[in-house]
Predict the 3D structure of the following.
Amino acid sequence: MNLWLALEPILEEPSIEANLRQFCLVLSVSLGVATLSRMFSVLRNIPYTLLLLLVGLGLAVLDVRLINLSPELILFIFLPPLLFEAAWNLNWQSLKQYAVPIGLYAIVGVIICVTFLVFGLQAWAGASLATALLVGASLAATDPVSVVALFRELGVDKKLTTIMEGESLFNDGVAVVAFNLVLGIALGTEQFDLSVSLTRFLVFVGVGASIGALIGFGLSFLTQRFDIPLVEQSLTLVSAYGTYLVAEELGGSGVIAVVITGLILGNFGSRIGMNPRTRLVVSEFWEFVSFFINSIVFLLIGDQVRFDQLLDELDKILVAIVIMIAARAISVFGLGALSNAITGPAMDLPLKGQTILWWGGLRGSVSVALALSVPALLSERQEIISIVFGVMLFTLLVQGLTTQPLLEGLGLLGDQPLKLEYKQMAAHRVALNRVVQRLEEMKQNQEFDPEFVAYQRSLVEGQLEQVQETMARLEQQHETIRAYAAEKLREELLAIEADTYAEFIRAGQLKEDLAPLLATVLPEHAAETL
């Protein structure tokens, strides 16, 4: 009661009440659209993030403005948890496996994009140097949230998903650093110097990566000392925001810091410091956070569009779109060829995959945040915002909505539907086996009438037999499914071994993590032995 009396004057402030109403309105609209997208078959082929963008654009046409989307709201509220969630779920082994193409796309690709946009906008659109620099740096950040979600839903090859997500995570950080470097040049307060810019870039990235590693490993070892799922879940949330703020305060890249922290906690900390149940709880929590924030941010992006201002800059927007697509093509195909030459045939990135990476390089929330963060004292600020918004809308609506047909046309879905069916059958088999075990316990403990338990068990075993027959048929008819089943078996065995080592570490019987011995025993392509 005393607490309520203390809070009552604060809650009665008109600004807080108005903000709460706005937030509830935004949340209701976004979650309503996300729900409807799953209920009606007509809408299921459209990624819910793009559907939210369309609804936001509809509200903008009606001049209904839900809330003012500021750069601080995106960079400090929305971006850290989205980066953390993506990094948490990114497998370190896969990231290391495809480190060459990811590194080339995330660093060299940003340089190519910025360079082409700067020279192209000045030469063909008559843009000033300040506009060209800031538009180029803003549009260098890819944000393929909807495309990656589509990849996962359709079961697209893991290589493409990993490369696209890894590139996006790291080039966000590089693009933000590049934007900060060119901002002073655009404002006329600094002169371009290659050695100075390179040094500042390395400092930004180095400080961010160091802080991210320090916090990530620190929390990993801290969570070994206790097993309280809600506390460990809360620590991951605090680390996402805290890492970003600390890195920015100390002159580093907050984006890089959060990505490093998320990678460490997701691949190392969750193994040695969390039991499997806690790890599942935390993963489900971050899946909810990602859905929640994406549901809001895409709606608000669409709602911020000013169509009259876009029309005023339509010529520059069209030029920027053409340049960006061309720069992306040179970046993806050129660097893809270089990556293939470095890594060799075993890690070859095929031309069809490169085509999807090229077309799926969408622009989103990071580009919008950078454009909105241009200081008001710069006379070209509105021009920059309009160009970035126009290009972003093209990538999300045109490229985003045509990615699935392109995947089908290139034949990249292939046997992925079969793999999805096999995974569903595998999950059914595990669940039904557990039900059978529970029924056996009931029978032994005489918890229910034996005849009733026996009847239920016969029904479950009949379903289990059908599932096993379906899985056996898929393995017999499709060689890729046999290889896939063998790969999943290998991953499961390695995970069991790693979890066992983690138990010894948590118990204090081991001081450091051990590399799984089975990795050297089990063949990489176990299907060959079947």
